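Handout, section 4.2: multi-component inputs.
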Amino acid sequence: MSHNTHQVVFQPSGRQGRVAEGITLLDAARQLGVDVDSICGGRQTCGKCKVIIESGQFPKYGIASSPDHVMPMGEDEARYFAKHPPSIINHQSSVTTDQLPVTHYRLSCAACITGDVLVTVPPESTRRRQVVRKGASDRPITIDPILRQMFVEVEPNVLGGRKGDWERLQEALSCEWGLAGLRIDIHALRRLTPALRAGKPSTPGVKPRVTVVVWDEREVIDVRPGFHDAMYGLAVDVGSTTIAAHLCDLHTGAVLATESAMNPQVTFGEDLMSRVSYVMMHEDGLSKLHAAVVAALNDIATKAARRAGVNTDDIYEAVLVGNTVMHHILLGLDPTELGAAPFTLATHAPVDVKARDLGLRIHPAANVHLLALEAGHVGADNVGVLIAEAPDRQDEMMLVIDVGTNAEILLGNREGVWSCSSPTGPAFEGAQITHGQRAAPGAVERVRIDRVTGRPRFKVIGNDLWSDEQPPGQIKATGICGSGIIEAVAELFMAGILKSDGRFNESWTSGVGSGESVLVADSPLPTSYLRFNGRKAEYVLATADQTAFGREIVITQDDVRNIQLAKAALYAGCKLLMRRRGVARVDKVMLAGAFGSYIDPLHAMVLGMFPDCDLSRVVAVGNAAGDGARIALLNKSRRAESAQAARRVHYIETAIDPHFQEEFVNAMHLPNRVDPFPHLEALGVLPDERSAPDEEARARRRRERRERSAVASSQSAAPEDQAP
Amino acid sequence: MSHNTHQVVFQPSGRQGRVAEGITLLDAARQLGVDVDSICGGRQTCGKCKVIIESGQFPKYGIASSPDHVMPMGEDEARYFAKHPPSIINHQSSVTTDQLPVTHYRLSCAACITGDVLVTVPPESTRRRQVVRKGASDRPITIDPILRQMFVEVEPNVLGGRKGDWERLQEALSCEWGLAGLRIDIHALRRLTPALRAGKPSTPGVKPRVTVVVWDEREVIDVRPGFHDAMYGLAVDVGSTTIAAHLCDLHTGAVLATESAMNPQVTFGEDLMSRVSYVMMHEDGLSKLHAAVVAALNDIATKAARRAGVNTDDIYEAVLVGNTVMHHILLGLDPTELGAAPFTLATHAPVDVKARDLGLRIHPAANVHLLALEAGHVGADNVGVLIAEAPDRQDEMMLVIDVGTNAEILLGNREGVWSCSSPTGPAFEGAQITHGQRAAPGAVERVRIDRVTGRPRFKVIGNDLWSDEQPPGQIKATGICGSGIIEAVAELFMAGILKSDGRFNESWTSGVGSGESVLVADSPLPTSYLRFNGRKAEYVLATADQTAFGREIVITQDDVRNIQLAKAALYAGCKLLMRRRGVARVDKVMLAGAFGSYIDPLHAMVLGMFPDCDLSRVVAVGNAAGDGARIALLNKSRRAESAQAARRVHYIETAIDPHFQEEFVNAMHLPNRVDPFPHLEALGVLPDERSAPDEEARARRRRERRERSAVASSQSAAPEDQAP
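Output:
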């Protein structure tokens, strides 16, 4: 090697420096701290390190760059490019050149520097690529998983050499990749000898080549013959009702397939506490529930792999999130203590367990990582939400609500995050509702009620038209799902049909009706949408001819009451955190949960699911828990930080907080009995009879409404706030 | 606590010092570095720490000791002794007292010091007890296994406490036992919560108590409710033919049961290479062989546990040894490379693998440890021999021969140990011998041949009488086992019936016969013991009426040749090591192997299985490999040292040594063509015609024998040495 040096500039980072003549561009990149990927360790096989050598004068850097300033291509490199012609489309170099960039592609591990060069590293050649997370927040994830795949040449054994295959592989990994002190999983050890035999090139004198997968720079978990760059991971949100999994490419971060399935544990109990009871009452309860969820996970993994055209044996890591009960049952841990105070967890720490020890049929030495738990009622799913939404990295005061049978709520900013769990019950998932059902085709998911006529229109899942845009017989509604019931109640309230205390307004009358009060005690009402029968009132959302089962879909007073209970718990939880955090308002609200992606922020706020906020800052972020699992799958630092973040969150036990009950009672009102909702007021969506602190204002509003009604229909009816 | 101090002396160590008044004897022992056991951590439950407080004046230490110099027994301690009265027989105090020692027993964790005391620590209360290893060497093993059982009280959880069961257990283990940074096996984590629930005393305010098993001060592998001191281990020698296991108490080191069984792999191939071939030829070969040996191990473990009245779930550790092929198959590693040069191992290092990953049905989180391997042909069994016989700890030059289908040989002393493997073939196990069989009832195991008459007598396994002490019909010999054929050949040689080149002596004649030469070519000879038929000679060991199958048991020229080949390989291996080590003679020979315990050192040396040595220094040590496994099971330091020792051993590859063939050819002679056997010469057991270097000496000996023969029978016949 000459002692001459040359100036090398890397784009887009702009990193530059003088390097010795004759070294490869890959070595130069490493010397200058430029991130260039490589699996094959410089054997011109993997193509991960390909770069573009620019041509021309670059006054900014004071150099003239040319493809001739590196040594010409050798046979191996030429063979690689013949097999894998670089796509011009991939060339996103910002540097203008006068030649077609395709001629400039080189493998940086092969190209030895003979003069000054300006090199562009395309995004696909950087190891820590970023992928954009789908969904509302669209924050990028840096791809840096806990696994690495490494291609190595292993010295052959010699007679009397006294080095086993594993010892020689360790030497190769130490020498080529700087890894020391590794251990090897028994499954990888079993594959090692056959892999070395199969990975032995037919050319004499060429050393056997294998690709290893190293977990956490600590353990070799697989060995494959030759070059093998398939490496996938699963991110799974194990919900009480639904299990949703993303199959990701651990090199690119791409989501190759998304699968979901019903959690088969529902046959043992709809809600968490009934499953805990099942475990307590049946000796084999835990093993049955455990086996059921593992079977479902295996099914999902198989389907996702098939859909993506991937071998399940190439799935080397899984990150699972779930609430504390799901977490425990999944690991085979007794959840009994979670059923009663003090709600003791088996462990708070993140858990790493071999896939084979869970019976998970991905790669047998794959690690399954479960994120940390925060508290008895705030599980790994909320830690997923925490790392996905990262309130602890915000300046603004952020409220994150993950809606489910138990809602978990996070509040805070970089100065501190508070969390609690709120016992909403399953109403938001369509349970405990007369015609409630899960979100599935046929379920009413959107509801609009005419403010004047009180007439409903709705949309069902799987049908793009609103109910009033098609003949009734085509609709075939089957029930109401969570988002449908929330919108229905909010709309009923906005139309004045429900009073702010949640009761049906007995003095409500259609703005286009006869003008007489429609209230006739103990008899059906003449209106086709609202009727009273003694103390039982109900609103007809879908007529018999609009449903699949030939009977009406109604919303009863009990349904409204259950939604009130659920939303009041949620609201009270939010208020509790705000009180502890010492803030009167929040800057931003993130509505998470599979639920969260289907509900309109306006309706949620009108219902009073959370305190007042600028509606433009209320965002439905979808399955944030699952996104968090994906982040932990793709980025080891974020994973490590999540355990720390989970410990730092200040957990509030709602059950023992003296203010919770008070906030809960106030929050039974729509949207709240005492708290102001200035943003809703400004939008004018609240009915006039909304609780006003003084009787005079209330009377004034009543007058105003009367006048508006008169304009609309020359009629007036003054609904009265009957708040207790 | 007072600031007064008192003098405390511990026997038998004699350690003493002043300690603060009020501390317990256990704390005093720890302060003074005295080894006193404890599992319960001072809760007066386990009784492991009981000591004897001596009474009287002890001028040697300048103190007066009395049981009154510690605080009186409390309720808990009294309850313990009521339940477990100390046996007076155990009291081996060398200190004379005037009271019955039984009154002086105290739990050292309970007895607080109020004055000067002299305390005797009985052997059963020391943690690092020693047990004497059975067998010839009788070296003690210090009991210090890699596992420890610890009894702890765990703080109960409180509402809002945010510490899981595992976090609180870690705190207890850190606080009471000083252990930090522990991890927990998933199986132990699964048991933790139920154990804490079950281990909660009914008395309010008393904390839950559990017993944990900690592996290598790193990992909690089990949690049991309350106090649980059962902890067992298995030491297994997985031989090609026989699997032998010891079930040991890991607290006392006692062998509670010994079980052995045929290695079921023999149905896939008698010798190792045929099993390797089976793996190569059958796609499921490895998994079949693996499953077979695991099933056998499970069977043995179950039987041993049943015999000892022990639960297999209390077996927390297993140490396995075996040759390299057995080792690989047991772990599910491909043994193909062991079938041909360069004899590459998958790994040389010791392997730790969870019992459940091998399918071994002991405690699922139990660790299975396989000792290191030395080389392609020198396996973990030889490392077992190495730590059992410890040539590397001797001043004397020690030769250790582990006889089997492949013999492994160790030679050396503390300045260095050399090893090699020698391809003896299966003749020593009775295979490749006309009437050979395994050591089993009916097999001839002992042979004596009258020097003068040439008449044999023998003993069969399962029959205490010699063949000439009982009617022929009672003997029912079925064949000859390894030790029988070795003694037979050695005796034939000593009687002059075999010449030193291994050929039957055609000119041999019974000292009491007609005096004429009995050699008649191509015809049966008149002697009833030796006959020639053309070039085929055979010696009749058992007559037809002495056998179970009604035909003679004979030893043919081919049988002798096979034994010669086997012993020559052994001898050549020994010589090779001696040459490399640069020694002309050895001080000590250890004959190991199940074989080794049944063969007489004299016969082995006369045959020339190993170079000349003082016969009183030749010892059959039995299954040293299995003993080594037991040592590694009972003592973690010895285990750790064994891996180092295995690396330090200088391995000689016999296949590539230029001298091996030469030594082998010389060693075909009985006992050897060129090497002197002064110890045998001195005993006068060698026949005169033994190869003498000069023709004159040979002639002289011939003359002498003629004279002796003349004295015996007035006849003479001069057998001639026909060495090539």
